[in-house]
Amino acid sequence: TGSLMPKNQARLRALGEGPIDAIMVDIGDRVQEGQPLFQIRKIDAELALRAAEAGQATAEAALRDLRAWRRPEEVAQAQAQLARARSEFERMAAERERARVLFERKSISPSEWDAARTAAEAAEEAMRAAEAQVQMATTGPTPEQIEVAQAQVRAAASSVAQARQMLADTTVAAPYDGVITGKFRKVGDFVRRGEEVLEIAGLAVLEAEMNVPERFSGLIEPGLPVEVRVDSIGLARKGVVTAVN
Fold first, then answer.
1. Is the CB of residue 180 less than 8 Å from the CB of residue 28?
2. Which of 91, 85, 63, 67 minimizes the C-alpha distance to 133?
3. Percent of the chain as helix, strand, coil, to the nearest 5
4. What angle do CA 23, 29, 33 make, to 5 degrees?
5. Whole-angstrom Cα distance, residue 201 to residue 9?
6. What is the reported pLDDT for 15?
7. Which residues contact 9 (CB under 8 A, 6 or more apart)?
8. Residue 22's beta-bridge partner residues?
9. Contact 146/66 with Cβ under 8 angstroms?
10. Is the distance from CB of 9 to CB of 198 less than 8 angstroms?
11. What secondary structure does DSSP assign to 78-142, as a single string?
């Protein structure tokens, strides 16, 4: 004597985190492969996907801008920024020189002298950056800059793919035809990734699990032909022993 056990039986777990919005089945329901069984709130995943898609669009636009360099308006804009940065540096350098003289005369505090010196250094850095922008605008991006922009586009595309998968994972579907044999959560419950929600058993293929008296154990080995009978419904099937434990 023994039991018929489903060959395919699984505990279906949440693939993401959040409250359960819907459970579409109950214990005893027959389901088909691919049928949605339960769904976790997906608004967070939808927002993450929108943000990732926006990031991808920005990265692609930046790459297009690099490839379409040397536009006259960009060169003019960079030159105007350089002129402003140079004028600001000259002003701050004059302020620094004035502060130096006053500091040597002990007319201002050390902190005021440090502030004037730091402001001039920052203005000089801004001017150097503006000069680099003019140089880039007139000569175009380097191969390394193009490669960096392309890598950023690939990274953004990967983020979009990941966000889409997170959105898809908010809905869990039946992995095969079967029957729902367990229900461990209800609508509104908050679940974390990996927590069990439903149990499904595929009844298309059953295995017979038998207990054998000890005195016969030496006769049982894998490959032995057997016949399994279910007397209550008059069913008989031929098979072989697949495992001895």
1. yes
2. 85
3. 50, 25, 25
4. 80
5. 4
6. 93
7. 181, 199, 200, 201, 202
8. 39
9. yes
10. no
11. HHHHHHHHHHHHHHHHHHHHHHHHHHHTT-S-HHHHHHHHHHHHHHHHHHHHHHHHHHHHHH---
Tokens standing for residue 91 = 């002003």
Mean pLDDT, 10 residues at a time, the chain of 245 residues: 89 94 96 96 93 94 80 79 92 92 87 88 91 79 84 94 94 95 95 95 89 89 93 91 91
pLDDT at 110: 85
Quick one: which of 36, 35, 49, 42 has its CA closest to 19? 42
How many Cβ atoms sit within 10 Å of the Cβ of residue 78?
A: 19
**What was the pLDDT predicted at 132?**
84
Residue type, 53: E
**Given the structure tokens 């595929």, which residue do they identify?**
202
Return the closest-CA partner of residue 33 out of 172, 170, 175, 168. 175
pTM assigned to the model: 0.59
The single-letter DSSP state of residue 164 is: H
- Spatial strand order in the sheet of 196-210: 2-13, 196-210, 178-183, 30-31
φ, ψ at 3 (rounded to 5°): -130, 150
